[in-house]
Amino acid sequence: MSIVKKPKAISNWYLPGILSGMGFTFKKLIKNLFNPKGMPTLNYPEEHYQYGPRFKGNHVLTVKKDGSLRCTACMLCATNCPADCIKIVASEHEDPTVEKYPISYEIDMLRCVFCGYCEEACPVDAIRMGPEWQTPALNGGNFTYDIQHLAYRPNLKGGIQSRLDDEERHKAGI
Amino acid sequence: MLKCKINGKEMEVPQGTSIIEAFKLSGQDIAHYCWHPGLSVAGVCRLCMVEIEGQPKLQIACNTMVQDGMVINNNSETVKDVVRWGLDFHLINHPLDCPICDQAGECGLQDQYMQFGKYDPEMAERKVKKRKVVDLGPTVVLDSERCILCSRCVRFTDEVSKTHELGIFNRGDRSEIGTFKDRPLDNKYSLNTVDICPVGALTSKDFRFRQRVWYLKTAESICPGCSTGCNVNVYYNEEGLWRVRPRHNPEVNGHWMCDEGRDTYKYVNRKARLLEAKMGHRDNWTLESPGAAAKAAGQKLREVIEAHGPESVALVLTGQYTTEELETAVQKFKGDLGSSLVYHWVNNPESFEDFDGILLRGDKNPNTKGLLKILEQEGVSLTWKDLESRVQQGQIKTVVVAGPENQSVFPDFVEKVNLLAGVENVVWLTACPHSVLDSREKATWQIPLKTYIEKAGSFINHQGKTQSFEVGTVIVSSALTLAEAATLLVGQELEVSSGDRLAELTRKKNFFTETRGAL
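ok -> structure tokens follow
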């Protein structure tokens, strides 16, 4: 149901309406010219809004000290994922203390709803939601991120180290 | 019969029943690791503690027999406290790395920990480190750290497989499972130790890290590996089958199955399957949908019969199909085509009667008894020699072969295909492709059939016991059953089944939502 407003006689005199509208516009223009910091909008490509540290952006797979993946391929993130966008293929690691690791870890970013359940489910701090969110691509761009992108993309500069350290955990007998 | 009261419930149990069995009969939960219904009692895990009225101390349920008038409970605070502490002792050296462990999701210790666990352990000492990823043999991997020394696997090799490979070595907190001088655990039943392991200490090389168990659904089926007809649970997801495990049936297989039978999931998956029908001959194959190819082959069959009479067409059957399918095939062939040339392909006659004393039989077909019954019922008593002589004389122009779905147990496969090399037309019904068929010089139709997990029916095992099974899952949906293929071959149309049955199948209950983690 829509409300139909019948035009009143005064609206046929359109000039007063235009002038009051333009007056408002110019008032704001002059205000912003003399006080640009009061503007609520950002000059987007040049300026960026800084989100809080808890912002859930694109995923990052953390790495160990030696640069290998922290992930143990337990698949709790994939199990918890409500969008069903994480695909992991596990395999046997040569090192018996590591035992299991992912040979393929893919996140379909177009299906991801950025809920952060994967981060919460991870028992070893292997997946985090980073601050990055502006990741457009042209037609045909790849939005299924693999290990190479999730853990070692250039702006991570060799990977983000996990807080947990395997050797320390081992010494502590966990 | 003895009267007893379990958690307030009046029961009658037969003489010689242990308390834990009485608990199982009454359908109530009781924690236990070392006790297994198929093995002797060890009484080492001390978790099945129960309180018996009139006895000052708690008793273990697995090694205490029910006596007349016993009043037993395991839900008092005393019992719960003892179980909690018993669990804490088990977890002194057991790593809590369930996310990596392959048993997670079907682990009794994990469930118990979630239910009773003291989440803050009271041990100040560090966990003892032991050997990890020990290669025990061709099928099993051991992780000593996770072992809780329940000795189920040791008792299995002592009592069931009688191969005595496994033992517990060293003492105190250094004790661990192993094989003497690291000899391999290599017997035909070794993977049963993986099934009965209540934790993730023994894992199967074949299944390890392939899937998390909570992603898999399960279907009940019958193992097609040999004529024993073990009852099995098949674990599958949308990609196909992942593993086969035994299902308890005291009359057939007890709690066990052989390692060979566990491989029967491999030829079922899409990678190993014939997905589309192939028509033509060597280097000149055209792909066709199975139904259309069967119709085309049927057209050819009728042309041959018109030209040379019904005795120019022969049917070869193997014991790898359900009784119902075989019956339909023979009836259609005899009744509608009018040929009485039906032959039984015996794959390995010299080892046909072999039996290893436990489960494995030399007859590698699940339904030889069923096939013989159908042949007798239809009055067919032709020998293989008869087919050979007819082929050599050139009387037979067309052979329809219901080939084996499990080709690896047919050592004479190539030989039999070569025997039919001179026959003008061969209609080969099979679930899996074979290179020998692809190199046939004369006209051939290879028509994909369904495997045992994709159809309903019954097998008659070596004892003469009829075991029926339902459709578990569908891997190649366009493939035909033998009965459907036979119907199309004789020129009839298939009946379209109603949607109700499909709905019923899709509403199958999920094992993991009901008895997940049961030991």
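The mean pLDDT of chain B is 90.
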